[in-house]
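Consider the tokenized backbone below.
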């Protein structure tokens, strides 16, 4: 299991930006894991947002955030980031980072999860 600790959530106005961070704290070899971001709004299921390969060379985003969000990682710091720009009220959710042994956008392929961080976008 990979221990993941998230930070960076908060309250912003529509059009603003936030950067979420997720640090690996278990001592595992971080670069071997695909890292993903998911979100869950009240009353809704968990939704895939973005993922990045172990090397950081390959990224993938859900259509609703393309052009606004960027995922990146610093393997030396064992940290993955989600830069969120041009935020919309529809982005309001609890955001979770997760680790997977395979390149995937399916939450069932991720076996380690962070505690979640709240992102609220006001209009």
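A designed sequence for it:
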């Amino acid at each position: 299991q990979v221990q993941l600790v998230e930070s960076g959530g908060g309250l912003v106005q529509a059009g603003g930006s936030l950067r979420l961070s997720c640090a690996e704290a278990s001592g595992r070899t971080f670069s071997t894991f695909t890292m993903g971001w998911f979100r869950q709004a009240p009353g809704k299921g968990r939704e895939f947002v973005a993922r990045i390969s172990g090397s950081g060379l390959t990224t993938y985003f859900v259509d609703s955030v393309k052009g606004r969000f960027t995922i990146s990682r610093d393997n030396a710091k064992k940290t993955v980031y989600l830069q969120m720009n041009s935020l919309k009220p529809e982005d309001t959710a609890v955001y979770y980072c997760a680790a997977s042994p395979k390149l995937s956008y399916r939450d069932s392929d991720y076996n380690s999860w962070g505690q979640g961080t709240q992102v609220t976008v006001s209009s």
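The chain has a mean pLDDT of 96.
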